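Quick illustration for those who missed Monday's session on complexes.
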Amino acid sequence: MKSQAAEAVRKPRVESGYGSPKPTVQLPIGGLRRAGASDLDELMRLEEACFEAWRRDSRRMIRDSLRNPRHEVWVCPEVESGGERLTATLVLRWLPGALRVYSLATDPERQGSGMGRFLMDFARRRAEESGVRAMRLEADAGRKGLLGWYERLGFTRETLLKDFYAPGRDAWRMIAKLADAPTALPE
Ligand SMILES: CC(C)(COP(=O)(O)OP(=O)(O)OC[C@H]1O[C@@H](n2cnc3c(N)ncnc32)[C@H](O)[C@@H]1OP(=O)(O)O)[C@@H](O)C(=O)NCCC(=O)NCCS
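Prediction with coenzyme A bound:
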């Protein structure tokens, strides 16, 4: 696992239009793994570091996701002297005929280094391998940068969901149809 991770790295980008360059990281392709109950504390730390209070999942919701056979919680671990630290997480939910990207988060210290794109590419591969027709996600309607990034990844805005996260916090439901897939999507 570790040696694979050392070999299978993608050259990270350090420059972008978002401001100052971030430190480089090696993407831990071999190190991406399914999360388990022992990751709960780290998953909560990422949730609190990455999302505003109104947008966060509770510990109980994350635990339920870890147990749900239709959900997949993936994590990128990094070994530190004090133990293992999670640098990013991806939560997928299988729907009839579609894969929902439920959550995606990179530790703020690692954002802008390609981890998010790596995880979205991974999600797309999971969807394609599984033969579903589309990917779906909901994105904060107030974050133009995030919506634009998803559009660059092949998603299009489908429905504006009023008060999706909380009163006054709308979301865009976004869809990416997969190659050779029928156009109709499941409800
Ligand atoms: C959205 C998020 C997961 C992206 O993760 P990431 O590891 O920063 O992703 P990337 O490094 O692949 O960057 C994503 C895009 O945003 C840009 N970007 C985002 N933050 C950046 C930063 N701080 N510095 C430089 N570029 C940044 C990159 O250029 C990239 O665009 P590109 O792929 O077209 O070049 C991350 O910003 C995050 O965890 N945000 C908080 C939680 C969240 O909002 N999750 C999404 C909704 S569930």
